[in-house]
Amino acid sequence: MVNGKTQVLGVIGDPIEHTFSPAMHNAGLEALNLNYIYLPFHVKEERLGECIQGAKAMGIQGFNVTIPHKSNVMKHLDDIDQVASMIGAVNTIQFIYDENNESSNQDNEINVRTKGFNTDGYGCVRAIEEKTSIKNKKVSITGAGGAARAVAFQIANSGISELSILNRNLSKAESLADDLKTNLESIGIDININSYDLDNLKKELSDSDIFIDTTPIGMYPNVDDNPIASADMLHEDLVVNDIVYTPMKTSLIREAELANADVVYGYKMLLYQGIRSFEIWLGREAPVDIMEKALLDVLGI
Do 142 and 215 form a contact (C-beta atoms < 8 A)? Predict the structure, then answer.
């Protein structure tokens, strides 16, 4: 029951009406019998700074951040986690209060620091590791946008042997590869860059262990889009992850099943990025099974 001691978590974005996060997080909070509530907040871009300051004043404990604020919110935070800084985007904010919730300065201002994290790549890697270890594996990624960037930084820093990035706009793939090499000087992996076409993709997938599609191909309502890769381009030793989660069985996932490849559904990344946020805010292990069931229920799966 919500009362005067209830602590608040939430998600900020514009739009925010279709977020699935509240169902997942509130189920986890209830399962642990914590006096918290997780709420969606519709925040316009021009009000982002005021939102962060207001959250401090109200004692908000944590935010998730969704489009279009993941990059712009960084300038309003006190600290940025190293991974989030390299990616250039934040999807989780931790509000860190002192013991008395007040500073000792003369103005009696609230003493609180904000720290930004990016848990998107973590969510993708943890979902894949349910199926296979990524150590010493070759990974191919299609796309070079924000999601690809988060995934590429996390996975390149997780012990893989080779990374291939394919994108229609070759310059964006090159820019992502350059950023990886600059920020992860000691990773010691081969990074290949190709413009996306069927021949290049087929060649890269032929000896890949893991394939991650970060493009919106097949996302609702365009569920009948041609898959980015057909079954004959895939193989049964491949793990295929489409980060799109509506629908769960995208055109790519269906092709992967035809090829007898191992599949990782897109909702798993959504689940585990949320799990990591939950653990950052609360400092305790999240009830994964309960949060997953709540997410599947709200997704209608």
Answer: yes
Sign of dihedral through CA atoms 100, 102, 104, 106?
negative
pLDDT digits (tens, 9 = 90+) for 54-74: 999 999 999 999 999 999 999
Could you give the CA distance from residue 301 to residue 119 in angstroms, rounded to a whole number?
Answer: 23
Strand pairing class (138-142; 210-213) = parallel
Q: What backbone torsions phi and psi does residue 205 show, to the nearest 5 degrees?
A: -70, -25
Give the torsion sign (CA, 33, 34, 35, 39): negative
Q: Are 13 and 65 in contact (CB under 8 A)?
A: yes
DSSP string, 241-273: EE---SSSS-HHHHHHHHTT-EEE-THHHHHHH
11-47 tens-digit pLDDT: 999 999 989 999 999 999 999 999 999 999 999 999 9
**Active-site residue list:** 70
Residues of the chain by 3-state class (helix, strand, coil), percent to 5: 40, 20, 40
What is the Cα Rg of the chain in Å? 20
146 φ, ψ (degrees, to nearest 5): -60, -45
94 and 117 Cβ atoms separated by less than 8 Å: yes
Q: Where are the alpha helices (DSSP H) in 64-119?
A: 82-87
**C-alpha–C-alpha distance, residues 78 and 222, integer Å:** 40
Name the pairing type of β-strands 239-242 and 210-213. parallel
